[in-house]
Amino acid sequence: MSEVKLTRLSHGGGCGCKIAPALLRQILGEAKEKLPYANLLVGAETSDDAAVYRINDQQAIIATTDFFMPIVDDPFDFGRIAATNALSDVYAMGGTPIMALAIVGMPINELPVETIRAILQGGESVCQAAGIPLAGGHSIDSTEPFYGLVAIGIVHPDRLKKNSEAQAGDVLILGKGLGVGVLAQALKKGELSANGYAQLIANTTQLNTVGSALSGLNGVHALTDVTGFGLLGHLLEMCRGSGLAAGLRFDHVPILSEALPLAQKGVGPGATGQNLSSYGHEVDFAARLEDWQRRLLADSQTSGGLLVSVAPDAVDAVLSCFHRAGFAEAAAIGTMMRGEPRVVVN
């Protein structure tokens, strides 16, 4: 089983498999009108992390799905990463997962049964850690391997956190360091150290359970997670939904220590270029920033950190919440401000 190179069986990996943001907007259409269902609290109109449907005054159901092709070769680790990433969208709405279903596509003539079983066991282990059942799913024979979850969660309607309710003057807090795409590309090229691999796995399998706690804090206005479109892409979604601009301080953005020297050498996934081509015209970069710094802000994250827009007087409480939950790198990285939706990076 250890000899199977999962990453060689697919053309992309992790959240880097996502369709580029600009192309996705063309496919879905620029105008996303709110559907005429009063209890549909969140649909597709602001590119939020999950759909949310109110079932009564105390409960709303969160529904989301996420799957992708291998980002690592170890099957158990691949299953863990994919499951952690899928559950993150529930936490990014301020909710708590209650159940999951598996989405499985495998080239059954190329992968041993033991390898496929290990992928599924990896996903099951994450669901167990989240305290939820993996209650079923669907599988197909596919030319490329992919795995993920349908994740179902619950949230009180008053504690729901959208990506579209940031307020001018809010401070932006990021929960995990950037650089997952860089580490994954280095792995694929055979250039990743043992320490780099350990950091990649630790980062991508850390459940964003802190989102459930953040939803109960006063001053937390908007919440999302950073995945395939990179920090800039998901921040721009927050800007568009909220009708605001954002300012980022590059020197405040946490970066995974093992990814930094690789990024400085130009290592990174192809999705980074696609991301910048899609939304680079909506970003104002300071002239002093080097190319590797700009690319890192668009680096395609898999199972990335939560991005929080919070009132200034609640920043300490939010950072304490992150740190108590084990997110040591969580940091304030910028602010939301009045203006046309775009990001200014200094």
Description:
This protein has about 350 residues and is an alpha+beta fold. The chain has eleven helices and 13 strands. It has helices at about 20-30, 75-90, 115-130, 180-190, 195-205, 210-215, 230-240, 260-265, 270-280, 290-295, 315-325, and strands at about 40, 50-55, 60-70, 95-105, 135-140, 145-155, 170-175, 220-225, 245-250, 285, 305-310, 330-335, 345. The chain has a seven-stranded mixed sheet, with helices on both faces. A six-stranded mixed sheet has the order 1-2-3-6-4-5, covered by helices on one side. α3 (about 115-130) links the parallel β4 and β5. α2 runs parallel beside α3 (about 115-130) and α4 (about 180-190) crosses α5 (about 195-205).
Based on Cα principal axes, name the global outline: globular
Total helix count? 11
The overall strand count is: 13
Strand order of the largest sheet: 8-11-7-12-9-13-10
How far apart lie the N and C ends? Answer: 47 Å
Mean model confidence by pLDDT:
93
Helix content range: 25-40%
What structural class is derived from the secondary structure elements?
Answer: alpha+beta
Rounded to the nearest angstrom, the radius of gyration is 19 Å
Strand residue content: 15-25%
Unreliable spans are none
N-to-C SSE string, H for helix and E for strand? HEEEHEHEEEHHHEHEHHEHEHEE
Question: What is the element layout, followed by pairings?
Answer:
Elements: H1 21-28, E1 40-42, E2 51-54, E3 60-68, H2 75-91, E4 96-106, H3 113-130, E5 134-141, E6 146-155, E7 171-174, H4 180-188, H5 194-204, H6 210-214, E8 220-225, H7 230-242, E9 245-248, H8 260-264, H9 270-279, E10 283-285, H10 291-297, E11 306-310, H11 315-324, E12 331-337, E13 343-345
Parallel strand pairs: 4-5, 9-13, 10-13
Antiparallel strand pairs: 1-2, 2-3, 3-6, 4-6, 7-11, 7-12, 8-11, 9-12
Helix pairs in contact: 2-3, 4-5
